[in-house]
Structures are given as structure tokens and as C-alpha cells.
Amino acid sequence: MALEQVVKPSDFATEVHNDWCPGCGDFGILRTIQMALAELRMEPHRVTIVSGIGCSAKTIHYVKTYGVHTLHGRALPYAAGVKLANPQLKVLCLSGDGDGLGIGGGHFVNAGRRNLDMLYVIHDNGVYGLTKGQASPTLKLGVQTKSLAHPNINDAVNPIWLALAAGATWVGRGYSYDIKHLVALIKQGIEHKGYAFLDVLQPCPTYNDINTKEWYGGEDRKDANSGRPLPRVYKLEDEGFDPVVHEPLEIEKKATQALEKALEWGDRIPIGVFFKNEHVPTFEERILQRVPTSPWPVGQLEVTAARFTPRELSRISCAGLPISQIRSDISDIASAIAGSSVHTAMSSPR
Ligand SMILES: Cc1ncc(C[n+]2csc(CCOP(=O)(O)OP(=O)(O)O)c2C)c(N)n1
Ligand code: SF4
Ligand SMILES: [Mg+2]
To answer: For the chain, what is the domain count?
Structure first.
């Protein structure tokens, strides 16, 4: 449900002190999330953003929606629990590349095959920013950023390949300094029916001195005639790339072309939508088929006085649900999904 009145990105800003380094690409991601929510006219209390641990994970404190700053690598199962507890919420999940592809790598794979209706964004800076610049799973083999004593001894994970292989039904990549393009991608990811994965190239000027804003912008290789930089980042849509699976028979063909594009890196780095397939039922739809008497019918959640005791009603505060109900639902569902116990501290409404 959207707001009647005009909303601005600043309506999604908080007063919380921001301690990111100057020039950090996280600022662009924060700004684009606020812009996308405003352009979609979302009601702040209908949105929940879940994050793990890292510089990137602090984003939730700077966006005026509900938010949960969870454990390192555990953002996805927590977000899954939130979505299943209240399918009416728009759920965004944010991770750093270490959070999502290192310690949280198992959850990354399993989120793909579930197809929950949510957007997962990875802030891809090639380093563990919060812990002073160790190599993250997306740093390429042989690259030596300034915190490393030796060139990276490990090869990199390709987040686009991994998301496609895991079954994500919408896969995109953005660049944190191309604000207009990134807003459009975040909006598409939020509106996609099913699990959307967005890899955002996010320079970390403090610890990654290789994949910098200047490097992405091609400042180190100028056109011989014009003297202008030759940017490495280009947009898939500018080259007529069509990522949409128009009918189920096309799935293999569209996945193959997405995998081919995902291999490009170095001189040409594609951003945009790689793959979009809405011919797969969401996890919520599958659950509803299995448990038709579910107390939370997808798309029909309405709180009625009859459902809760007077004491519970007095505590209703989060998107129309009592915190006690949310806590126990999230705990049960997330634990079942993660196969482990999950901490359930809720952040209070800001
Ligand atoms: C279980 C656990 N292991 C390790 C850490 C230490 N730690 C905190 S953040 C982090 C990595 C952050 O890197 P990334 O996810 O890429 O986020 P960024 O800071 O780059 O945004 C690590 C290793 C932790 N908090 N918890
Ligand atoms: S360490 Fe890097 S990722 Fe973290 S706030 Fe600073 S510039 Fe951003
Ligand atoms: Mg990182």
C-alpha cells in the first residue's frame, strides 16, 4: 500500500549519526534506497530492512523504516522470518560482500531456491571494511589492496553467477556512483515478484585502493583522440540486452546469456538487469498451498480485535502486529529455515 501524499527521500532519513568515511560508496546506496522508497510511495511502517554486520550493515539505522541489525552472516534467514511472519511487509535485506558471501554464503545459496518475495542487496567493495580491509570473497585473485601483506591468494566468488546458479529469479548489478541507474534497479528489485538479488559495486576509498571510483570511471585509460576517460562500467540495456524470461521455455537461454555477461570484468563491467523470471511460485505461495488455514493469508493480512487478547492489543506496535507475536513467529520460522537458533532482538521504531 502506498502513501496518498507526496513523499520525499528525506522522509526516509533519520537523525542517527553517520560514521562512514568520506567518499564511501555506501552513501550512494543509502541515498538510492531512500529515493527508491519515496518514488514507490512506500509507507515507512510497511517496510523492514534487515542487515548483518559490517560498515554496510549500518545502513538500516539511517533509513526511517523498521530495521533489524542482526548477526554477522545471518541477515537472510532473519529477513525470511520477517517476511513469513508478515507477508504484507516489503522486506529489504542488506549485506556486505563478506557478510553475504563469506560467513553467510550458505544462506545466499538457499535464499535463491526459496524465492521469497524480497530484495537482497550486497554492498560489493572487495574488502572487509569494518575490520580494516581484509580481502573479501569478491576480491580477485592476485589483487593486492593496501591492507594486504601479499596479493590475494584466493580466487573470487562471482556473485551474479552464484545467484543465478542458486535460482534467484531477478539478478542485477548496480554501481553506487550511478545514482539514477541504481534507483531504477532498486525499484525493479523491490517490485519483482520473488527473490531479487542486487550486487552493488561500492568503492571503499579507505581500504580498496584498486577498485576505486577513478578505476571504475576509467580515469587511468584515456581515449587517445579526445583525452576523455574510458569508463569500465557500462549498462546492459544500452546494448539491447533483454533479461526477461517471457515464457518458461526461454529460461535456459536467458540464464545462459546472463552467465556469459556475468563473466565480463576488467575492461568492460556490465551493470543493469541480468535475469528476470516471474514464472516461478514464491515461497509464500508455496506455503499457502501447503497450509491453507495459515493465520497469515498472503496479501490479506488484517489485524482484527478478535485475533488478540486485550493485553496483546495494547502492545500492537509493529506494522499492526504485536511485538510478542512477531518475536515468536520470527524465531520459529527463522530457526527452522536456518537450522540454527537466531537472535531475535528487534530494533524499536525510529
Ligand atoms: C561471527 C563473527 N565473525 C567475525 C566478525 C568480525 N567482522 C565484523 S564485520 C566483518 C566483515 C565485514 O565485511 P563486509 O561484510 O564485506 O562488510 P563491509 O564492512 O565491507 O561493508 C567481520 C569479519 C563478527 N562480527 N562476527
Ligand atoms: S571502511 Fe570503507 S566501506 Fe567502511 S565506511 Fe570506510 S570507506 Fe566505507
Ligand atoms: Mg565488504
So the answer is: 1
Mutate to test the pocket of ligand 1, among 27, 99, 134 (most ligand atoms within 8 A of CB): 99
User: For residue 233, what is its C-alpha cell?
Assistant: 562500467
Domain that holds residue 85: 9-276
Question: What is the pTM for the complete model shown?
Answer: 0.86
Closest Cα to atom 2, ligand 2: which residue?
A: 204
> In 3-state terms, the chain is what percent helix, strand and coil (to 5)?
40, 20, 45
Cell numbers 584498486 correspond to 210
CA distance 174 to 172: 7
82: CATH: 3.40.50.970
Q: Which amino acid is at 309?
A: T
Tell me phi and psi for residue 17, to 5 degrees.
Answer: -60, 130
**Amino acid, single-letter form, for residue 48:** T
The sign one gets for the Cα dihedral 330, 333, 336, 339 is negative
Q: Which of 17, 18, 26, 210 to mutate to test the pocket of ligand 2 (most atoms within 8 A of CB)?
A: 26
Q: What is the pLDDT of residues 26-85, one digit of tens each?
A: 999 999 999 999 999 999 999 999 999 999 999 999 999 999 999 999 999 999 999 999
In angstroms and rounded to an integer, the radius of gyration of the C-alpha atoms of the chain is 20
Question: Nearest-CA neighbor of 128 among 173, 160, 96?
Answer: 96
Q: Does 151 fall in a domain?
A: yes
Residues whose beta carbons lie less than 5 angstroms from ion ligand 3: 96-97, 125, 136
- Let me know if residue 289 belongs to a domain: no
State in Å: Cα 302 to ligand 1 middle.
38
